């Protein structure tokens, strides 16, 4: 028996828009292989030994400049910490900030697998109150006050404020500033995984870049380069980064993914990163546009907003669970909305990812989905 190699292998005959994975044909196999074969001999043994706790200097230096170009401000090197992806960043940050029994607030809808990571901490997850612009700062501050009055600790709020997974929505700038002002004593953990997959117009500055402290921003190379690298980074105030770097396991093992980080630094400083992300933006924009057009034509009754970036359409439907079942019978997979909520909700939404398939497959998926819709009354 062959043991599995990869997380997702698919089901014969199903176009599975339920998974937020990259199109395999868009993974940079040759450019990564070339970077490895150049970077490792150039760095010699320093590429393979234990790495500096916060990440190798080459990558930190490039990130300071790069983040300055894509976000509201450039971090100091002391405000950066290389992680093994946004998921590990969240695991690490939440393990520093929370204790079992705490309340952790999350946006709604939100990244369903972040809910799993947070649940592993033994915390109680609560949805922050939201309106059509995202998290409602005043209502959330009141909720925090009420919880504290009951003797509960509320150490953190997790949010995907830019190109949200699953909704694709981005919190407007004034709302970002209000949220930072409103949430004193609650660390905002901002998952900024999709910032660079922007298909038009400027992207709002991150909450982290607008705040002097109290926000940790999680970045990832999974969507811009490859998830198998298990590589990301976070930005936070220098004191918080020192707390992370002094964790026992970092002290023991050094940078959590040193060799990949060294190769990434080479991939980036040789211009391959920018070139690749530019190819991805064009390719994913085309996939988004194809699915949008195909759905509008085949399923005109299904409402959705066109996201300015990221990988997802958030479809408003009458009954998500039964429609997802019927769609699967016709060979198209979708994620049901309730997975992206805590405490109920999502019964009228399906998430469709346009990242994994070619435009032709996306057209076929829209066609199959339309056949699964109940006939109009
Ligand atoms: C919002 C969000 N955060 C984090 C991740 C996972 O990131 P990583 O692969 O860097 O752990 C994903 C992947 O789907 C995501 O959509």
Describe what you observe in this structure:
The chain has 13 helices and 14 strands. The strands form 4 sheets. Strands 2-10-9-8-7-3-4 form a 7-stranded mixed beta sheet, sandwiched between helices. The chain folds into 2 domains: 34-270, Aspartate Aminotransferase, domain 2, CATH 3.40.640; 274-372, Aspartate Aminotransferase, domain 1, CATH 3.90.1150.10. It has helices at 29-43, 57-70, 86-97, 112-119, 137-149, 173-182, 207-210, 238-245, 248-253, 258-269, 272-298, 320-329, 359-372; strands at 15-16, 80-83, 103-106, 124-127, 130-131, 134-135, 156-159, 187-191, 215-220, 232-235, 312-316, 332-333, 335-336, 349-353. The N and C termini lie far apart (51 Å). The model has no long low-confidence stretch (mean pLDDT 97). Bound molecules: pyridoxal-5'-phosphate.
Overview in brief:
This protein is α/β, with parallel strands linked by helices and 377 residues long. 41% of the residues lie in helices and 14% in strands.
**Main sheet overview:** 7 strands, mixed
What number of domains? 2
Helicity, as a percent range: 40-55%
Look at the structure and give the mean pLDDT. Answer: 97
Going by helix content, strand content and strand pairing, the class is: alpha/beta
Total helical elements: 13
CATH topology of the largest domain: the name is Aspartate Aminotransferase, domain 2
Name the hetero compounds present: pyridoxal-5'-phosphate
Task: Give the CATH level 1 class of the largest domain.
Answer: Alpha Beta
- Could you tell me the strand content as a percent range? 5-15%
The strand count comes to 14
Straight-line distance between termini: 51 Å
Helix/strand order, N-terminal first: EHHEHEHEEEHEHEHEEHHHHEHEEEH
Low-pLDDT regions: none
C-alpha Rg (nearest Å) = 21 Å
**Shape by Cα distribution:** globular
Reading side by side through the largest sheet, how are the strands ordered? Answer: 2-10-9-8-7-3-4
Provide the CATH architecture of the largest domain: 3-Layer(aba) Sandwich
């Amino acid at each position: 028996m062959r043991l599995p190699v990869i997380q997702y292998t698919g089901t014969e005959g199903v176009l599975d828009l339920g998974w937020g994975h990259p199109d395999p044909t868009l993974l940079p196999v040759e450019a990564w292989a070339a970077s490895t074969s150049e970077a490792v001999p150039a760095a010699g043994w320093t590429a393979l030994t234990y790495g500096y706790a916060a990440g190798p200097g080459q990558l930190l230096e490039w990130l300071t400049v790069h983040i300055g170009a894509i976000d509201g401000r450039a971090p100091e090197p002391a405000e950066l910490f290389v992680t093994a992806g946004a998921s590990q960043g969240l695991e690490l940050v939440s393990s520093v900030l929370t204790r079992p029994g705490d309340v952790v607030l999350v946006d709604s809808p939100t990244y369903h697998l972040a809910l799993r990571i947070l649940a592993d901490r033994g915390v109680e997850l609560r949805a922050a109150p939201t309106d059509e612009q995202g998290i409602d700062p005043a209502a959330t501050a009141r909720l925090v006050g009420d919880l504290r009055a009951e003797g509960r600790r509320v150490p953190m709020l997790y949010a995907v404020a830019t190109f949200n997974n699953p909704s694709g929505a981005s919190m407007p700038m004034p709302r970002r500033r209000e949220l930072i002002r409103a949430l004193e004593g609650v660390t905002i953990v901002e998952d900024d995984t999709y910032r660079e997959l922007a298909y038009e117009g400027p992207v709002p500055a991150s909450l982290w870049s607008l705040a002097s402290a109290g926000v940790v921003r999680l970045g990832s190379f999974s969507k811009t380069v490859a998830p198998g690298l298990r590589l990301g980074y976070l930005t936070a105030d220098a004191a918080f980064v020192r707390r992370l770097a002094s964790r026992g396991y970092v002290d023991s093992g050094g940078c959590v993914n040193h060799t990949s980080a060294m190769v990434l630094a080479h991939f980036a400083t040789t211009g391959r990163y920018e070139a690749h992300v530019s190819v991805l933006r064009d390719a994913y924009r085309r996939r988004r546009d194809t699915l949008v057009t195909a759905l509008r034509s085949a399923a005109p009754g299904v409402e959705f907003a066109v996201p300015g970036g990221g990988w997802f359409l958030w479809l408003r439907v009458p009954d998500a669970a039964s429609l997802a079942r019927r769609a699967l019978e016709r060979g198209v997979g979708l994620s049901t909305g309730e997975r992206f909520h805590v405490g109920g909700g999502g019964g009228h939404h399906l998430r469709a990812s346009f990242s994994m398939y070619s435009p032709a497959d996306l057209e076929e998926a829209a066609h199959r989905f339309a056949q699964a819709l109940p006939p109009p009354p």
